[in-house]
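question for whoever is on the cluster today: can someone run the full assembly for these? two chains, 533 residues total. i dont have access anymore since they changed the login thing
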Amino acid sequence: MTVMEISNLKKSYTPGKLAVNDVSLSIQQGESLGLVGESGCGKSTLARCLLGVEKIDGGSIIYNNTPLANANRKEFRDYRRNVQTVFQNPTAALNPKLKIKGSLLDPYLQFQRELELEHFTFSSKQGFVEQLLEAVELPKELGDRYPHELSGGQKQRVTIARAISIEPKLIILDEPTASLDVLSQGAVLELLSSLQKMLGMSYLFISHDLAAVYQLCQRIAVMKDGELLDIFQKEDIYDNSRHAYTKELISIF
Amino acid sequence: MSVMAFSPKKIKKAKLWLISALLLVVLAAVAYTFLYLKHDAAMTDVGNRLASPSWEHPMGTDHLGRDVMTRLLLGFRLTVGYSMIALLAAVIIGVPFGLLAGLRGGWVDRLFMRIADGFLAFPDTVIAIVLSGLLGPGIGNLLFAIVLVKWVNYARMVRSTVLTEVQKDYITIAKINGLSTFTIMRKHLMPHIIGNVLVLASLDFGKIILLISSLSYIGLGAQPPTPEWGAMLNESRPYFQANPEMMIYPGLAIVVVVLVANILGDYLRDKFDVKKEVQP
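^ ran it for u. tokens below:
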């Protein structure tokens, strides 16, 4: 089953130059799709378009058989409820003046009317926060701390907990390990894959680190200069039919 | 004495004690004026003018035979009360304008910034003097002038806080989650604003007291026989050589209150700076 279909997506910041040029992708239920490319190739722009932060200049994003451009209020709300995100820099992604529990509860409080959670149960705010922290393997008393009291890896786990808190269908991970040290990177990747087994959502994992993508994802897409060059199953990575640029990436990883 | 005696922690603690003690004195003085006053502040007794301290008049009497201590204590209530009113009005007007300008941007922001620039081009005191000169002397006009001068600071501060915060990822994520502008304002921006406003307000408190007193001193604010400290200083000017204490008492009172306000401001600034270290 397809969770999200992106067809011929175009986005431009400066006239005449496309940051995302004619990208078509589909993301299947429960899969991890990796998106690799060098800095400035348009992968983060693509993520921002999918999250509705940037307006798209062409093509469409289709969710639940409805193009987002035609979605009514209710459908758009449903989209937001089902597409969550984790950003690169966990320090910027958490409000420094709010306790961890305050940040964690944002999505739940926003969507509680229509939520039917399967995995987590909400009886009290405190209990819910503890469940979430436990799910990302953090001590449950961290809910009462402020972000600056946590390490980078812990903060990233908190933003992951926030993303999974309403059990979305898709999480867009925009370089979630890029600002972490090597040890935390490995731990976060393992956490992501065990959470996927537990909750069954799809990932769009954006990274410039082919090794991390290879570890987490079943399918890999390669972008360069705004264009999608290559998309393949992980097993076919050494196949001879790979694009020349993909081969170049593989040779350095 | 060892260097340790002046460690920042000890200084901070000493500061806290000093504020608490001074605040207590201030509150006791205010409470006293409400509970019990021996003399009428406006009651003249020409036969007993410029009297030396006695049990009846602990700080003596002024040139019209009025009890100085009574006037000083009442002046306290007036000066502090006027500053509070001016400050509150400035905050209530300034904060929403700043939020609006920061969040809406566009022409609202441009218009607001031009107005703010206009006010900031002149020193506070000059605008206050001109305005209360134009509107005529009197405490009401003076307060109006002070509010007009001060609200800009709050609006500008709130605006700049909002502008830096809205670019950060946590606001983007809140928007992705569909939080309304009002919720983002209340939950995510207010905690950043409140601390700053409190610190700025407590520092401004001292400045406003000085402004009120100095304008009353030159005759533009509170009018005699109101026992406002600046006005009292002005009234006792001709008697400075023979009876300097008549000027020293209100002068000292102003110094103490402004000092307390400033120390309190410093303390609040330390207190609200939750983020002691930035970035890992």
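summary bc i know u wont read the tokens: The two ends of chain B are 38 Å apart (CA to CA). Chain B touches chain A through 24 residues (CB under 8 Å).
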